[in-house]
Amino acid sequence: MSAEKTPGISAIDTTNFARQIVLDFEFAPVPKQRQRRGLRNEIIEVGAVKLDYHGNVMGEFSQFVQTEYTEGVAYPVRELTGISAVDTAMAGPLYVVIKRLSDWIGRYSAQVVCWSGADRRQLLTECQAKHIDPAAFPTDWADLQTFYTSIMDVGSHGCVSLSDAATWFGIEFDESTGHAHSALADARVTAKLLKQVMDGDYRVSPRAQEIRQRWGGWASEPRRAFPRSAPS
């Protein structure tokens, strides 16, 4: 598997880490007049799923985050995510939530897996702007979007969205996952896609045709890619 070009993002590694932490953030935009040190968004929700060597779910983490520069939750974000101003006002600030998340991850060696490199960039930018030391957080990150884009014939479409990849491979946002653009629901679906990587088993859904038509082309079957075997 090729590594992501973004600095600090490595290839998916299912062998050398005891845990895979599938992580997702939801953001809210910071008003221009209140932006600091390049901070254009603030994290308002954190969702994570912990997997073992074999891709089995070991636990989940879900918390809202209190904002510092953003007042309330703008209507478009509220409509998209279902997160209200009350949710963020009653939550802990980012440094508290990151500490809780780090404690939940534990002392095992862990790789953080996200859908795109945006989550890592957001966390580092926000920690710098808010003088938060992320040293206790895992430093090895992998981008699952890059991997799936590489095995799907996307042509000139560009990077594949989480919802498109999920539909392509027969994974649905439903009652078991929660609605799309919920941090935990997105992490759950991303974890299911990561499990396919760990198993080396990709089965294209009949609904992939809907995506091909929407993209305006007919993509071929994905190239099979098998990760290194995980230790038993």
Strand order of the largest sheet: 1-7-6-2-3-4-5
Poorly predicted regions: 1-5, 218-232
CATH hierarchy class name: Alpha Beta
Residues in helices, as a percent range = 25-40%
Structural class given helices, strands, pairing? alpha/beta
CATH fold call: Nucleotidyltransferase, domain 5
Rg on CA atoms, Å: 18 Å
Distance between the termini: 21 Å
Count of separate DSSP helical elements: 8
Strand content: 15-25%
**Assembly status:** single chain
Number of domains: 1
Taken from the alpha-carbon principal axes, the silhouette is globular
- The SSE order reads EEEEHHEHEHEHHHH
* Overall mean pLDDT: 86
Domain Exonuclease: 19-203
Keywords: Exonuclease, Hydrolase, Nuclease
Organism: Collinsella aerofaciens
Pfam family, one: RNase_T
Structural commentary:
With 232 residues, the protein is an alpha/beta fold. It has a single domain (9-215), classed as Ribonuclease H-like superfamily/Ribonuclease H (Nucleotidyltransferase, domain 5). It contains eight helices and seven strands, in the order E-E-E-E-H-H-E-H-E-H-E-H-H-H-H. The chain has helices at residues 75-81, 85-89, 94-105, 118-129, 144-151, 162-168, 183-199, 208-215; strands at residues 9-10, 19-29, 41-51, 57-66, 92-93, 110-114, 141-143. It has a seven-stranded mixed β-sheet with strand order 1-7-6-2-3-4-5. The longest helix has 17 residues, at 183-199. It starts with 8 loop residues before the first strand and ends in a 17-residue tail after the last helix. Mean pLDDT is 86; it is low at 1-5 and 218-232.
